[in-house]
Amino acid sequence: MVKSKKENRKEEILEAGLEVFAKKGYYNATTAHVAEKAAISQPYVFRFYKTKEELFIAALDRAFERILQTFKNVEASPEQLVEKMIEAYEELSELYPNEIALQVIGISVTEKSIQRTAKKGLSDIRSYTLERFKSAGIKDAEREASTFLARGMLCNISYFLDLPELIDEKTK
Q1: Angle at 11 between CA 40 and CA 121, to 5 degrees
Q2: Is residue 43 included in any domain, yes or no?
Q3: Is 8 exposed, middle or buried (0-12, 13-18, 19+ CB in 10 A)?
Q4: For residue 147, what are the domain limits?
Q5: E strands along 36-138, which residues?
Q6: How many Å apart are CA 108 and CA 118, to the nearest integer?
Q7: For residue 90, what are the contacts with CB-CB under 8 A and spacing of at least 6?
């Protein structure tokens, strides 16, 4: 199905928002920055997203959706599942680095609606990971899922702060 011009424009604004928020953070980014990045007028942004907060939530949702879909697309034997999911996340991080930054930024924003979105996104990923680990027969799936997510968040923080020694002993 072909997207309409309006749907394409909304998508372009959302992708511009992802990039702007990832680079500037929530509080320093403006809809004017997003409009400039999308090469449109600021009022045109508001045709699709009523507020900066609404646009940020849509961008954060997009980030979590991509992560979840990436994990769902992993095909692996139970013995290789964790390793393949890590590889898939690393590939996603290279293809869509703004998603990594947005997760870190999203958990630091104090607006309640954004906190709810971050909680839901992380919870959905945890639930999926736990169920996937259980169905694969991974021993102590609860602990393994928590460890998997904790390492992922540490990787995100390491990337966001450009502090690779948080996760890689060789960089010290």
Answers
A1: 125
A2: no
A3: exposed
A4: 52-171
A5: none
A6: 9
A7: none
The CA distance from 165 to 152, in Å, is 15
Residue 73, C-beta contacts closer than 8 angstroms, at least 6 positions apart: 88
How does pLDDT run across 112-161, given as a tens digit for each residue? Answer: 999 999 999 999 999 999 999 999 999 999 999 999 999 999 999 998 89
pTM of the model: 0.89
The secondary structure of residue 170, as a DSSP letter, is G
Angle between helical axes of 31-38 and 5-28 (0-180°, round to 10): 140
Instruction: State the helix-helix crossing angle for 112-135 and 141-161, rounded to 10 degrees.
Output: 130
59-80 confidence digits (pLDDT tens): 999 999 999 999 999 999 999 9
In a domain, 148, yes or no: yes
Tell me whether residue 30 is in a domain. no
- As for how many domains the chain has, the answer is 1
Q: Which amino acid is at 9?
A: R
Nearest to 81 by CA among 37, 35, 134, 117: 134
136 exposed, middle or buried (CB, 10 Å; 0-12, 13-18, 19+)?
middle
Q: Is residue 13 part of a domain?
A: no
